[in-house]
Amino acid sequence: MKVIDILNSPKPTISLEVFPPKTDAVYASVEQAVEKIADLKPSYMSVTYGAGGGTSSHTVNIAKHIQCDKGVTAIAHLSCISSTHDLVHQQLTKLKEAGIENILALRGDIPEGFAMDHLDYHYASDLAKEISDFGGFCIGGACYPEGHPDSANSVEDIDNLKKKIDAGCQYLTTQMFFDNNIHYKFLYKAREKGIFCPIIPGIMPITNAKQVERAIKLSGTIMPPRFLSIVDRFGDDKEAMAQAGIAYATDQIIDLIANGINHIHVYSMNKPEVAQKILENLSNIVDNKNL
Predict the structure, then answer these.
(1) According to the 3-state scheme, what is the secondary structure of the chain?
(2) For a tag on the chain, would you pick the N or C end, based on fewer CB atoms within 10 A?
(3) Catalytic machinery residues
(4) Burial of 143 per CB tally in 10 Å (0-12, 13-18, 19+)
(5) Residues near 195 by beta carbon (within 8 Å), at least 6 away in sequence
(6) Which region among 22-31, 101-110, 154-163, 280-289 has the lowest average model confidence (pLDDT)?
(7) Lowest mean pLDDT among 88-92, 242-246, 285-289
(8) What is the tens place of the pLDDT at every residue in 218-255?
(9) In terms of Cα–Cα distance, which of 162, 100, 176 is closest to 131?
(10) Is the pLDDT of residue 290 over 60?
(11) Residues ≥6 apart with Cβ < 8 Å to 112
């Protein structure tokens, strides 16, 4: 099933992101975690792509397993910054042969010291156009409610998002944020620029204090005082912090749904217990049988 068809449903849905193993040695343990998450029957699951494509084969295999063996629609991430046209076409062929119909088109992180000249792809919009020309896939893109780190300002950032849509992206999924007002303001700016595709908020449950620093480094996100108070109070207590982090993420999701945003993407970090708790907290808000 193509994700855009799921997103056209008026019913609230929860989707979950997982990541493939970084090495063959941990493949079995990651696969086990992914299976437990798939057993929760989210609306769909996305599978990330390793830096430089290092885990690209694992991405295809995990996505195929989720979809073919567990019966959950899968999205495969595909990044392009260090790829050639030939490598991208090889990956698209593998995904098509595996029965994967959904791709999240990403530029990918730029490795330190990486030479940016003579690249086949510079932007995610270049990749989206390539996938669109290849045909047969539902294409998603990423967006940053607080602005892409490489954009000069929010105006330039929204203009670049419009290029992704024009290149073939049918929906967007946001980077994590911890203040829903940031997302609402971002939606207004996007709609004002003529971006009317589904924009799916990405929610990251912070279940240990160490994740805070990483979240800020990855996305430059603003941590609201209310959340920082939670970290200050419970950060040294592993179980309390996990419970508080899940409650905070649940509260974000409830607020989003209450304000008419029906489709939510949760960054599960391969933690079945976290994903399960969130779904349990939403059991009477989101009908899991209809996900």
Answers:
(1) CCHHHHHCCCCCEEEEEECCCCCHHHHHHHHHHHHHHHCCCCCCEEECCCHHHCCHHHHHHHHHHHHHHCCCCEEEEEECCCCCHHHHHHHHHHHHHCCCCEEEEECCCCCCCCCCCCCCCCCHHHHHHHHHHHCCCEEEEEECCCCCCCCCCHHHHHHHHHHHHHHCCCEEEEEECCCHHHHHHHHHHHHHCCCCCCEEEEECCCCCCHHHHHHHHHHCCCCCHHHHHHHHHHCCCHHHHHHHHHHHHHHHHHHHHHCCCCEEEEECCCCHHHHHHHHHHCCCCCCHHHC
(2) N
(3) 17
(4) buried
(5) 158, 161, 162, 165, 172
(6) 280-289
(7) 285-289
(8) 777 889 999 999 999 999 999 999 999 999 999 999 99
(9) 100
(10) no
(11) none
Dihedral (C-alpha) 165, 15, 146, 140: value to the nearest 10 degrees? -20
Q: How confident is the model at residue 135 (pLDDT cuts 50, 70, 90)?
A: very high
Q: Per this entry, what is the length of the chain?
A: 291
**CB burial class (10 A; 0-12, 13-18, 19+) of residue 196?**
exposed
Q: How far is CA 62 from CA 51, 83, 110, 252, in A?
A: 17, 21, 24, 29
Among residues 9, 75, 80, 87, the alpha carbon closest in space to that of 51 is found at 80
How far apart, in Å, do the first and last CA atoms of the chain sit? Answer: 13
pTM of structure = 0.93
